[in-house]
Amino acid sequence: MREPLSYGAHSKGALSQGASRNEAMSKFMEWFQDSSSKRSRRLEIVGKEHCGKTWFAKKLSEMSECVACHFCRPDEPQSSESATVIRSIGEQLMRRFPNLVLPRLTTVTLLEDTVAALDHFLRLPLETMPSTSRPVFIVIDSVEDDETNLLIEMLIDILPTWIRMVTTSRQESPTRKPDDTKEIVELDSMNDADFERFIRSKLPHCHVEEVREASEGSWFYVEQLSRAVEMGMIPSDLVPPIGVEKMMHLIARSLPGPFADIVRLAKTSRCRPTRQQLLAVSQMLISRDISILEKDIQLISSLIGSSPPDSELFDVPDIWFYLVGEENLRCHSAWAEHYKTKRRKNAQDICELAYHLSHSTTNPINAIKTLQSVGAGDLILRCHIIDLPTTALLKSAGAKMEENNYDVVYACSVGDVNYLDAILREIKPLPMEICFGLLTAAARGNIEMCRFLADHFPQLVSSSCCGEWNALRSAACYGQLEILHLLLEKGVDVDECGHSDRTALRAAAWSGQLAAVQLLLQTGAEVDRRDSEQRTALMAAAFMGHRDVVSVILQYGADVNTVDKSGATALHLNLSNGSKQDEHSETTRLLLENNADCKIEDSNGRVALHLASYHGDPCLPFIFEKNPVVDIMDNMGQTPLMLAASQGQLVSVQFLTEKAHADVDSIDNNGRTALQWAAINGQSKVVEYLCGIGSDEGHKDNDGAVALHYAVTHDNVDLVKPLANKHTVEAKDRYGQHPMMIAAANGNLKVLEYLMEVSDIINQPDHEGRSALSLAAMAAHTSIIESIAPRITDWVQRDHDGTPLIHTLILSNLIYVAEVYLTHGGSSSDSDAHGRTCVHVVASTNHVAAGKMLKRIGGVNFESVDRGGRTALMTAVWARHVAISVFLLDGCGVDPNRTDRQGATALSIAAQIGDRELVNLLLKFGAEPKIKDSMGRTAMDVAIISGNESIVSLLQTANGSSGSSGIGSSVPNSPMDASKQRIRQIRATSSLRSQRIDNSFK
Length: 1002
Prior knowledge:
By secondary structure, the protein is mostly helical. It is 49% helix and 4% strand. It has 54 helices and eight strands. Helix 51 (916-924) runs parallel beside helix 53 (949-959). The longest helix has 15 residues, at 82-96. ANK repeats lie at residues 500-532, 533-565, 566-603, 670-702, 735-767, 902-934. It comes from Caenorhabditis nigoni.
């Protein structure tokens, strides 16, 4: 095995073998946070099919530093086309960066001249964007073909250095040539603890290693198999088939007959159809009653679909498309018929009809006539539609194909006036196209183009696109002074703005365009004009840390203490950026020197000192000089020290305690101290420091929790050590839980082992009777059970209702946990308040897999009786559970003739409830019909009293008698009647601190 990726050596193109999800995430963070110029700007996550790459990409896309993400779908070729990828990334960047102006280029331009289009679509607009205070990244999932890989390389070349790229792809060939343009981490679910937990949670009745090997590391395999088991399509005790394909074939055999045709129809539709659309088309292809067909589609969607349950889309993983194969001619014909019969057809419907006709067995002449009849001749095609056969058929039906693919916005973007003039002679563009063209030309500084557009379309010079952008603001954002002069000369109002009320001055201030800001102010721009968020140009410049711009705006009389909708001033916004660059600090000092009020509170009650402490701002001492109230509280009662501690800002914590003399044990509205907030957020260095200066580690908050209660939710022994002593380890919160219980519930084994060295409180329960053992078991942390087993003094672990832990585990379907529990000290003979053991629970739930587990571990008494003298077999019969009855009789050899305290046998019970299948089963395994209960009644007597004539006939045949004794008029009682309450399914969960934390600052 090759060595893993060495980040210390900054190696490029290296391959990390067998990284789990957690390891891969750690390596991603290490790569992303390392700003070294030696590091590659692209990180590629590779792995086998279905190993969790897309899951990983989605997790990354949820991070705040992710500014754009795109998912290529193998079943949707257009999703991998360069035009789609570029446009998707561009639109997301515009949403993320409000001052980014991107031209709306046509698909033809993006496809035919990708290099030039990228230059004008992304490179030039991003070049003049102010960089963010920290790096950001883009995620593109499923980069599988050479074309997309080439596009990624082009993107990396044109993107600014502060934007990085993460891609995912299938595992590369061992013969792959070294690539110095990217760093690679291989995702391997086979070595992933998360994968193991996923198997245990989804397939609790199976052996983990058996499933791991059979699945070949596929998360899809486990998810799909578990869904089939849960829906009863395949037996739970089935040996997992080897490989994804065999598993799919197994499930396919349980699906309705039309399954393959339905999936093929979904595949052929080109776009994901709704269930109603699929139902309408399926009727044309499948001879089946519509109500049955609707149920078939619902079942297929539920079993193999990937859409949420409440979604109307019929969406299945791509791999199912490959399983059912092609045979698409009939399917295309069915879809063509669907679009043909649709009442109101728009241009898209006509194109879809043409696509299906061109790929079906329809005679070309008939196809042309059909398209002509629905108005295809009125279409004007600017580029090829869907594919070449579709375009050819539409043209044959009379659709006009523009030989010249005019792109007005692109012409404006490149500044080619002659080309635009030629376009205008040929066509009359839409006002929106001209408006976007002017925006782009203004942003690029194409003065001749702007002059041309202003002369020919004067009414659009002041127009706003999308209700927000106008040419003046676009030019100001990119510092295009000539354009600003031109537009102002043309009479554009210097304070012209769209619906968001963001003026050109605000845009220039945000972007740090000093010369543009000066020009606009000299021209009379209103210095304190507010936008829809009540923010001024000064606030925008202060937030971005543009010191020179802030200075100029202040010289023009801007109000430094104006507040926005959230009560924040320019100083608040400046400090909330979190940047530690020199220009940022200079901006902070400039605001303070110009009388920025440090005492103003925002809507959260926070002053400048709060924000500076939270972000670890270098100007914290200077701010403290202006407002030396160190223990000031916000609306949550939190002091600057608490906020600094919560974010791990050690330097700020040291200043506040050593220089500003902050109260280290001050408490907030929740009764929490700075030490507790540091523990909550896992800030080990701050915890160590605060403990070292005397912070009270034994202080309890409003929940009765000490800092250690929160620290143990993190799997970090270094965090726990300064806080752990006999007093804190044994401290109980208001729920009666001590830190060991919380560590056990969170599965933090190393932390728990350290705490057990300090105290032997491991067996003490909380107020609800739950212990560390039961919490660990219900959270499926088997490693915790194995570790603490030698210290456990009470293995029964009954809850308040008297239900033993083993019962609860089985009822919760945690069979693999139950097996670990029993093999390490738990007893299968533990009984509840009604004398029922775990075999009774297995019988009442019809859980054959649990029964097999009990038989496998050995020493289990399958003949044990409850307080009513009833065996597990009787319990199973009362519940009409045939499967577990077969297992008990055939697999465990239980005696079918045992009697309860009323003298009733399992056969008597089956006769009373009238279950012919169970009666037959019991007779087959030797049940004696002539046994009489305590009132002298045989099973046939009970059947007669209960009115079950078919059972009477069956029993007469079995015992050779034609009559009954006729004794008595009542029947045996159900075991459930004897109990006041059934066994309740209880999943005991810890009162996790993280769920009770209201960290409103985030």
